[in-house]
Amino acid sequence: MTAGFQLLLEDFDLEVKLMRNILGANDEIAALNRKMFSACGVVVMNLMGSPGSGKTTLLEKTLARLVDKIKIAVIEGDLFTAKDAERIERQGVDVIQINTAGGCHLDAPMIQKACASLDLNAIDLLIVENVGNLVCPAEFDIGENFKAVVLSITEGDDKPLKYPLIFKESEVTLFNKIDLLPFTNFDLQAAREDLTTLHPTIKIFETSCTKETGLDDWTTWLLGKVAR
Ligand SMILES: Nc1nc2c(ncn2[C@@H]2O[C@H](COP(=O)(O)OP(=O)(O)OP(=O)(O)O)[C@@H](O)[C@H]2O)c(=O)[nH]1
Ligand SMILES: [Mg+2]
Hints:
Elements: H1 3-40, E1 43-49, H2 55-66, E2 72-78, H3 83-89, E3 94-99, H4 108-115, E4 125-129, E5 146-152, H5 159-162, H6 164-169, E6 172-176, H7 188-198, E7 203-206, H8 215-227
Parallel strand pairs: 1-4, 1-5, 2-3, 2-4, 5-6, 6-7
Helix pairs in contact: 1-4, 2-8
Bound molecules: guanosine-5'-triphosphate and magnesium ion.
């Protein structure tokens, strides 16, 4: 073994230990968040997916259907800007924007801090739109009740197998931009099979936020999560 290679292995070992410590510290705060959410009777959804997959658009359409039925608040996670929070605010719900300034995911301490500005007792459903990314958000527990992942048709049908953790961790996947199916080589059947191989009980919805299809089934399912 060359000295350079040995150094690389030592660096890797250090990185693994550091990552374990970071995740351990995060999990402790996530457990506190979960306790707090449970005590306040609020259901929390961690909404994840690639940049531009349609998370905020899905939220806009979801809120339009649910604001008269349940009390909802939203936490928006982005590297920079309050653009998504401004879109959500127009739906008439309380929203807090977190800017990670380069960080690729939200973590439990960020959610703990944001929740200090919310009246959790007055909320039925808290939706957290995570930073657009198919990798890191799945690794960081924020104390949510369940995770959801949006996969848009234009990203390609190979994504479940290439990024398995996020699909294994999520209770539900939305195939969004289904209106664009005729213009791509996305194989819906293959993607469904890959997903259910990874996660046999995963719930799947096919949605188009622009054509407004599949959204009623999705919001009915979401309402059921809150009722439970
Ligand atoms: N054709 C089509 N376009 C959609 C659909 N849903 C969202 N879009 C478009 O996709 C683009 C990105 O949507 P956003 O909702 O901002 O995506 P996002 O996942 O929130 O993006 P980030 O917050 O940056 O990660 C916008 O131009 C939307 O209008 C859909 O169902 N069909
Ligand atoms: Mg967004």
